[in-house]
Design goal:
By secondary structure, this protein is of the alpha+beta class. It contains 27 helices and 13 strands. The strands form 4 sheets. It has a 5-stranded mixed sheet with strand order 11-10-9-13-12. A 3-stranded antiparallel sheet has the order 1-2-3.
């Protein structure tokens, strides 16, 4: 509705979101746009019920009409803003849009992007479904989009049975594009060539040009970069690429797959294991995993797979070494500066109700107690989670129950620390509060502006780092409140105490010297031990002539005798 006040050169306009807006006439002429009665925005005012009915009967036509009224292209966010809460109830929009997307893709009349941040667009001209699929490939601007377009072609083979010539013409362009992008986008290039080969195999009358880049040749030439390139590809695509390894690497193909097994992500781990089992090569993978567990070098994805498949494929790999490997990874990740990498591993330990029972079930008494002690001292878990996990261990191995009472008393004791280590902790806490947390807050704010939070890596990374910083701040505040500084002066050297130097000798005459210091004073390069460490705790209160068991970096136990004890600061 418009009303005029010509003497004062004013006009009053009812807008969609507000009514009765008075504007200067000249300004209104410059800033407002007349709409055709058939424009979607006009129909939202004049024929809203018709649009609502159309959203139910023909969502494809509704979206096409909306796109046509906006120049043929718009983002999903813009589309949602136009429809949600007006044409479609806000609570129903997400479900409606998922169904509409499927119908739009089937219709081939609209290009529906895989990423929410990319715009939808009307196809130009009156294309047949087959022509529309070919057009999708020709309009793709990156390798991943090209691969998706080829997959769509392969899934609709019947459309091309009478005309494969148009597909044959695509092959030279695929070859050229993949070859150009190998150095900077190896993963998408592999994905594109794999999709190409899948399409070619689907048609008897399509052949690769002789000069085409072969997937097996590319795999062989880029062996050192394969792990990073394959990580993140879809499971089915990874599987198709792994099946080319025998052609690419000959007799070495199992060795190459085994080498990258722990570096290709969760999906890659599962697909490689399936392929090797199907080809009768599981023994070689098992040997590698058993060795990696013994060395404590198995990564998160492989370790999760071993735990999940412990009753089936990985039954011969799963052992009591798994527990030590899990705790090593959690502790190392906790101490590293950056987003957590072992969150899924920690969650699995909590969610799998029988995993801990299976881990400690095959341990002897001392191994079970050592594992329980490490679990209780692991800084990753909250007190509540730690008690819950330890309860499972005690249920499986009742002889570990004595650890809980001792742990409760130990937790209430002060931490004896050197002055320099205390200052270092305080400086770290100050840096977190004054610098790192404020910077992280800014990073989160900036990352929000990058688009859809569900597909926003920067935002997820910043939020993960926020959790790490807050947890670290809490941990530091708790530890500093319990800390008591010391210079270790006058330590009693009649037995091993905090602030003493211990000389050990083995049966073969080999000598070792350790310095037992405060809770935060571990320095392996200088043979300095925290009194809370496994070896430090084992040495405490021992006297000259007493025997002590020492484990080396390979987890092999050696027997030593205490030869002498002296004070660090007499």
């Amino acid at each position: 509705m418009i009303s005029w006040d010509l003497p004062s050169k004013k006009v009053t306009i009812d807008f969609e979101q507000s009514s009765g807006q008075t504007m200067d006439l000249q300004f209104a002429i410059q800033r407002t746009e007349p709409l055709d009665p058939g424009d979607f925005r006009a129909k939202k005012v004049e024929q809203l019920e018709e649009l609502r009915a159309l959203s139910k009967s023909d969502p494809v036509e509704l979206v096409i009409h909306l796109l046509a009224s906006h120049g043929g292209t718009m983002t999903v966010d813009a589309l949602e803003k136009e429809l949600s809460g007006v044409v479609i109830p806000a609570d129903d929009f997400r479900k409606w849009w998922e169904a509409a997307k499927r119908s739009l893709r089937e219709s081939k009349r609209v290009v529906v992007p895989s990423r929410r941040t990319d715009p939808l667009s009307l196809r130009s001209g009156d294309l047949s479904p087959a022509q529309a699929l070919v057009s999708d490939f020709e309009q793709a601007r990156d390798l991943k989009s090209m691969a998706k377009a080829l997959e769509a072609i392969t899934s609709d083979l019947a459309l091309f049975k009478a005309d494969t010539a148009s597909l044959q013409r695509l092959l030279s362009g695929i070859n050229e594009t993949a070859a150009k992008n190998v150095r900077i986008s190896l993963g998408p290039a592999l994905e594109l060539l794999s999709a190409r080969d899948e399409m070619v195999r689907a048609f008897d009358d399509i052949e690769l040009p002789a000069e085409s880049l072969r997937l097996s040749d590319l795999l062989a030439s880029e062996e050192n970069r394969l792990a990073d390139a394959l990580n993140g590809l879809a499971s089915a695509r990874q599987r198709a690429i792994y099946e080319e390894f025998p052609a690419a690497f000959g007799e070495r193909w199992v060795d190459v797959l085994t080498y990258i097994f722990d570096k290709v992500g969760t999906r890659g781990v599962a697909e490689i294991a399936k392929l090797l089992e199907e080809r009768g090569e599981m023994k070689r993978l098992s040997e590698y995993l058993v060795s990696a567990l013994a060395r404590r070098s198995l990564g998160t994805d492989a370790l999760i797979w071993v735990c999940r498949e412990r009753d089936t494929t990985a039954s011969g790999i799963f052992s009591n070494e798994v527990g030590a490997c899990i705790l090593n990874l959690l502790e190392t990740d906790h101490l590293s500066d950056g987003p957590r990498k072992t969150t899924r591993l920690q969650s699995m330990l909590s969610d799998d109700k029988v995993l801990l029972s299976d881990i400690v079930g095959s341990m002897d008494v001392n191994e079970a107690r050592n594992f329980g002690r490490r679990l209780m001292e692991c800084p990753v878990f909250s007190d509540l989670d730690r008690k819950s996990l330890m309860a499972r261990v005690i249920k499986a191995r009742p002889e570990t129950g004595e650890l809980v009472a001792g742990y409760g008393a130990k937790k209430e004791q002060d931490l004896l620390v050197s002055w320099p280590s205390l200052e270092k902790k305080k400086e770290e806490l100050d840096d977190i509060i004054r610098n790192r947390i404020p910077q992280n807050t800014k990073d989160i704010s900036i990352a929000r502006e990058y688009g859809d939070l569900r597909e926003n890596f920067e935002y997820k990374s910043a939020k993960d780092h926020q959790k790490y910083l807050n947890n670290r701040k809490t941990e530091l505040q708790r530890d500093i409140s319990r800390a008591r500084g010391t210079d270790f002066k006058g330590a009693d050297a009649s037995a091993v105490n905090i602030g003493t130097i211990v000389n050990l000798v083995a049966e073969d005459g080999k000598q070792m010297t350790y310095t037992v210091l405060g809770a935060w004073d571990s320095n392996p390069e200088k043979a300095e031990l925290s009194y809370l460490s496994e070896l430090g705790a084992a040495l405490l209160n021992k006297k000259p002539g007493d025997a002590v068991q020492v484990r080396d970096e390979h987890e092999v136990t050696h027997s030593y005798t205490i030869q002498s004890i002296t004070a660090v600061n007499p």
